Amino acid sequence: MEENDEIMDDFQEEDVEHVGVGKVLNFLKSRNVRASVISRFRTEKMDPDAICGADDKLLEDLGLCAKGDICALRSYCQGWNSSSTPSGSFTQTPESCRQERKRKLMAILQSGKKTRLKQNVAETSTKSKKPNNVATGSSVQMKEKTRRIQLGWLHYNKKEDRYIHVRATNGGGTRNMEFPAAYTKDNVLQAAIGIFFENGQSKFGFANEMEFDLANFKMEKVDVLRDNDGIENPFTIQGYFQCYKLSKARIYLMSKDKTITEVTNSETEVNATSNDFPAWDDFFDEENQSTVGDSPQISSPIFNEPTSKSQLIGTSEERASFFTELEGKVRRSELADQEKARENERQKREAERREELRLSREARVFPEVEIDDPSHMLVNVRHISFGIVTRSFKKEWSVSAVYDWIGSMSAQPEHFSLTCATTKKLIFPDVKCETVQRTTLNMSEREIPVPLSEDEKEVFFYAGNSSHFEVTDDTVVTNTNSFELEQ
């Protein structure tokens, strides 16, 4: 320490002008740095400006090896203003430096705020000068209004003579789409064909071999929309929502093979023209028939021409063969008409039977429970045709009430089951409604009625008719004591 004091005294006597160097030497002295190192700093005239510009290697070469001394010295020198006054002394303290930086920062922030304010005022004035009828870039790029719909697919089944749902495994299913509200029928048709007929083909054939149409949520063809006044309007997505007062809409793409339509049209033409041909007996009436050898000849009253100048082509055998073939076609057409009539009658009876089943289910539907009822609960069912439907029931009621309600909404399908959406477990009609609270049930089509309970697989839920329990003996029993039980 005494050696350091001697060095500082020598420095003050020999070089009083280098005040900055003296500050550095005093700081090194306070850090108990060796006198030889302080002497080298004095010799090299390391003032605060030099310290701030030197790297760690240079300071280590001067003998300041400790990292802590290097960091402390550089921090000390950065806190001072390295520029000196004409007198050679420092004029700012670290606190004054911080205040100065704070003042400059506030000035920069204030200037930036004023600049932004001026820009906003300029933009507002520019917009106010534009005419009202001139569309700005933002208004041109305004997002077009769209509506969400559920899109399904119905394909015509020739065997069943009706349109059936196409399931997802066959490329159908339900697609949640978002279309512009101004989409017309043609727009929706093209979009639906592109979705279900990827690359122009599907499991049922190519798109160019199909006839397409649109159907509403009732699976009825839709061409125009009628408002409350009965005025017909062209089909649009927005008009579809407004016409049926829907919050969620479902639209079906209907497809039918063109070959089926062509066969039906050709059969109709044959049926229409078959009545124009005279009967076989009219051509070969005994009074108008002459015989040359064994060949029948057509007499002149029919063709109004002499036999020698007849314009018929071919022999009488060829003509007879032609009319025989023609008669065969007519008879086959008549048989086809009869078969079609029987099929139509069968379908009519089937539709009536299904409607009777629906009405019987509807008759068993309980009135909807009021909200203030303590046992009130809501049941959600995902219907095959109508999407998710909701109705209130009592907790103590059995799920058979839910089956009746769902079955009364549509005649299709005839038999169905309800399964839990999360567990995929079949919900039997004999369980309580409270077991399906706060869950969604999925409706699935079945070939046979659902069993009444899980334990009794042979007893089915009542399907609306009693064809298996017909009683032919209507004798009234007045005294049961006369009957003996069979052992």
Rounded to an integer in angstroms, the radius of gyration calculated over CA atoms is 50 Å
Question: What structural class do the secondary elements suggest?
Answer: alpha+beta
What is the name of the CATH class of the domain at 146-258?
Alpha Beta
Provide the helix percentage.
40-55%
CATH topology of the domain at 146-258: Ubiquitin-like (UB roll)
Low-confidence stretches: 11-17, 81-91, 130-142, 276-310, 465-474
Supply database-style keywords.
5-stranded mixed sheet, elongated, alpha+beta, Ubiquitin-like (UB roll), DNA polymerase, domain 1, 487 residues, 16 strands
Explained architecture:
This protein is an alpha+beta fold. Among the domains are: 19-79, DNA polymerase, domain 1, CATH 1.10.150; 146-258, Roll (Ubiquitin-like (UB roll)); 360-446, Ubiquitin-like (UB roll) (Roll), CATH 3.10.20. Helix content is 41%, strand content 18%. The chain has 15 helices and 16 strands. A hairpin with a 4-residue loop joins strand 1 (146-157) and strand 2 (162-165). The protein is elongated. The model is unreliable at 11-17, 81-91, 130-142, 276-310 and 465-474 (pLDDT under 50).
